[in-house]
Amino acid sequence: MRRTAARLLTGTAFAVAAVAGTAAPAYGTGGGTGRLEVYPSTAVPGGQVTVNTAACADGGAAGDAGAVGAGRFILAPSARRGEAVGQFRVPPSAQPGTYEIVAQCAADGRKVTGDLVVMLSSQRQQVYPRGSVKTGVGGALGPDPVQTAAGVAALAVAAAGGTWLLHRRARGDGI
Amino acid sequence: MRRIGNTAIAAVTAVALCSGAWLLADGTETHAPPQPSAAEARPGRPDPGSAPALPPSPPDRVRIPSIHVDAPLMGLGLTETGSLDVPPPERENLAGWYEAGTTPGETGTAIVAGHVDNADGPAVFYDLGALKRGATIEVDRRDGTVAVFTVDTVETYEARNFPDAKVYGAAERPELRVITCGGGYSRATGYQGNIVVFAHLTGSRPG
Fold first, then answer.
1. Tens of pLDDT along A77-89?
2. pLDDT for A138 beyond 60
3. A80 DSSP assignment
C-alpha cells in the first residue's frame, strides 16, 4: 500500500475534522471544471466512494486510488450530467489519513485530483437533526392577489355595462 | 339591431357580474394545503421488498410524479438549535437534503425537506399532504443513477412533540424521509408541525 505519509493528519486535526462535519464534497486543486469531486470526502475503511468530474465528459477517465490502496478504476461518461463518474472501495486495511485521488482524462490526458480523508468508524459519528423543520409561513393561506384583481376587473365591466343599459333606458331607447 | 346590441350588453353585464362575484369570493378565501388522512399513516399490507442499497452519491433532483413535483436539491446543514436548516424560501421550486447524513439510495435514512409555502403563495411541497401510500419518489443522483422509492406512510407530527428517532434515526435498509410544514396553522405561531413522508428504496435505474 502506497501511503502519502506527508499528508497524514495528526490526531488533533482528526478530532477537529470529526467535529466540523465530514460529508461535504472535497475539491482538488484547480478551479472551474478541472477538479475531481470526491463523495463522501471522509470515508471509513471498507466504505464506498464516488468521484466525478466535469473535466473529462468526453471519453471518460482513468482513475487512480492507489494512494489509499484501492488501485485503478474507470470513470465512465455520464450522459445526463456531462460528467465522468467512477467508484471505488476503500480497503478495509486503510489507515487514517488524507489521500490524493487522481483521474486522467482519456481524451486529452489532463489530470484532475481530489482529496479523500480516511477516518476510523469510531472517530466518525453522524449527527442527526433534532426537532421540527420550519418550512412554511402560511403564505398559501391568504387571498390570491391575481384572482382578486380579476374579480375586481370583472365587476368593473359589469358596472360599466349596467350603467350603459340604465342610460339607454332613461332615454327611452326601448329596453 | 339596437335591441340585439342591448341584449348582448345585458348578457355581458350579467356574466361579468357573476364571474366577478365568484372570483372575489373564491380569491379571498383561504387555501390551506392538503393534509394526510389517517389512512395514509397506516402502513399498507403488502410492503414491497427493499431494493439493494446503492453506493453513496449526492442527489441532484427529486421528482414525485403523482403530485407534480420536479425540483432541484441543495445541500442543507443544521441550525444553531440542531434542527434541519431549510432552503431559501423565496425560491419556491427548490428542495434540500441533509448533506451531513445519508445520501438517498445508500443504507440508512436520507432526509429531504422543502417549503409548503412562502410569503407569495404555494411552494415546492404544497401538495405533499395529498401523497398516497405506494406512490413513487425518484431521486436523480450525481453518479448518474436514479433511486426509486415507494411511499410507506404519510404522517403529521406536532412540533412540540416531534419523534426525532423515528424521523431522523438510523435504518437498516435504504430509506427516505420527505418533510414539509403541516398540521394546524395559526397566525401567531404559523404551522404547528410537519408532514413527514416515510419511503424506502424499491429500485434504481440509469438516469
1. 876 667 899 999 9
2. yes
3. T
The reply to whether B142 touches chain A by the CB within 8 Å rule is yes
- What would you report as the CA-atom Rg of chain A, rounded to the nearest whole angstrom? 31
Against a cut of 0.80, is the pTM above it? no
Q: Please state the domain extents for chain A.
A: 5-118, 145-175
Spatial separation of the C-alpha atoms in residues B65 and B37, rounded to whole Å: 20
Return the amino acid letter for A5. A
Range of the domain at B16: 1-30
ipTM: 0.77
Residues comprising chain A, all counted: 175
CB contact under 8 A, A135 and B3: no
Which one of B14, B83, B143 has the shortest CB-CB distance to A133?
B83
Same domain, B146 and B169: yes
Across the interface, of B28, B126, B190, the residue whose CB is closest to A148 is B28
Domain A5-118: state its class. Answer: mainly beta
Cβ pair B120:A139 closer than 8 A: yes
Shared-domain flag, residues B2 and B93:
no
